[in-house]
Every structure is written in structure tokens, then in C-alpha cells.
Amino acid sequence: MDQQVALVTGAQQGIGRGIASVMAARAYHVVVWDLDPEAVAETARELGGTGFAVDVADFRAVADAVAQVEELVGPVAVLVNNAGINRDRMLHRMSEDEWDQVVAVDMKGPFNVMRHVVPRMRERKSGRIINISSASWQGNVGQANYAAAKAGVIGLTKTAARELARFNITVNAICPGFIDTPMTRRMPPEAFQVMLDKIPMGRIGTPEDVGRVVAFLASSDAAYVTGDVINVGGGMVL
Fold first, then answer.
1. What's the CATH code of the domain at 217?
2. Which of 36, 87, 191, 193 has its Cα between 20 and 30 A from that of 65?
3. Vertex 174, ends 2 and 29: CA angle to 5°?
4. Which 3 state secondary structure label does DSSP give 76?
5. What is the rounded CA–CA span in Å between residue 147 and residue 118?
6. Helices 96-103 and 144-164 sit at what angle, rounded to 10 degrees?
7. Alpha-carbon distances of 123 from 38, 90, 126, 188, 233, rounded to whole Å
8. Residue 197 lies inside a defined structural domain of this protein
9. Total domain count, the chain
């Protein structure tokens, strides 16, 4: 395959779909990973890529899927760890299951995929890894599980960047702010306006706004950028 392969987790909707769309428009062959086989297949078909139904929280399933991608599609040049869930609840009411679910997908998931993609990138001495964290990593009411997991992603990013720099592999994180996704569209109008009022640029972000920053970090223009955290939030401060 002449095209470089970009593997995007959580790519069937929202920010992941925006990232995948931008990468496909930049002539990458996009590998779409998500849970719903039909939605994954449809998204991959629309983008001219390849789809795999994978649970990123399942270490063994990820190992098998990475091997299939490399064998059937080609070497992963760009990995975007975007898959994530939220189970928001105040800390004193949060269940163990709500904590475990979010940490399993949002923090263990990126580790699982990196663990199986990185050895191949090291062998090739080339690669780009972009982890999608969140502005909430600094703390947000009702999101103890989500904030902790997304903070963990930043620690993982900075550590991996130091370990992999000598192999010409860059590792960076993006922290999206208030982005137009199915989740934000379900917010009550009053809560939506409160968030919008916090954004100096005066508009909600789009998934493609995040995708274009991913495309930059994946490009040769960002060859000397690693271990960094980039906010994509229109100047919003939580």
C-alpha cells in the first residue's frame, strides 16, 4: 500500500470521526476502530479505509487486531488514541463500576494499543502517536474518574515520548475543550450556554478542529515536537 496507515480508535462518531475524516482527506489510509461492527464498516467505507470492531480495554483483543492491521493493511505510521467514555457522577456517589469502566477505556485503552503498536514502530524507527486527553484532566466537577484517566493519559504521553524519541517516534497529547459531539448536543440548553460563555472565541469547536491539529502532529512539519500537550479549546479555561 502506497498510502501511510493511520489507526484511529473510537472513530465512528464525534471527535474520532472528525479526526478520521481529516486524515483521510490528507491521503492517509484510515483504519477505523470502534465497538459497533456495522457502524465501523460504514464509517470505513465512507472514508475509503478499513474497519475493525475492537474493544480497546481488552489487552488480548487489541494484540490480535494490531497484528491483523499490520498484516492485512500495512504498517501503522500514525496511531491516534481517541476512544473514550464518560460515566459522570459526583465522587461521593460514584460506583466502583463507573470508576473501573472509565479507567479501563480512557487510560488502559491507550496503553493497550501503544503496547502492541510501539514494538513495530521501534523496529521501523519511525512513528507518530497522538493521544486524545481532555481539558478536564485538570479536574472537573462530577468527573473524578474521567479527569483521573485523562490526566493519566498525559503522564503516559510524556513518559512514552522520552522512551521513544531515539527511535524517531514522536508522542504528543491533545486536550480538546468544548467540542460539538453527540454528547454535547444532549446537554440542557442552559448548561450548553454556560460552557459556551467560557470560550473566548465565542463558538463551540468542531471535531475537524481537533483533526487538523492531529494532522499537523502526524506530519513531517512536527518532526521535532514530542512530549507536548496541545489545548484545542478556543482559549477556554475550565
1. 3.40.50.720
2. 87
3. 15
4. strand
5. 25
6. 30
7. 34, 45, 8, 49, 36
8. yes
9. 1
Name the amino acid, one letter, at 160.
A
pLDDT classification of 148: cutoffs 50, 70, 90 = very high
Is 237 a domain residue? no
Residue 12 placed within a domain: yes
Catalytically active residues, by annotation: 146
Residue in this structure with the C-alpha cell 502526524, named with its chain if needed: 218
pTM, two decimal places = 0.95
Amino acid identity, residue 84?
G
- Residue 165's domain comprises 5-232
Whether the pLDDT of residue 1 is over 60: the answer is no
CA distance 79 to 156: 14
Give mean pLDDT, residues 103-131.
98
Cα→Cα distances 192→13, 14, 75, 88, 162, Å: 20, 17, 41, 16, 38
Q: What average pLDDT does the chain have? A: 96
Strand partners, 7: 31, 79
Cα 216 from Cα 94, distance rounded (Å): 38
Whether the Cβ atoms of residue 113 and residue 160 lie closer than 8 Å to each other: no
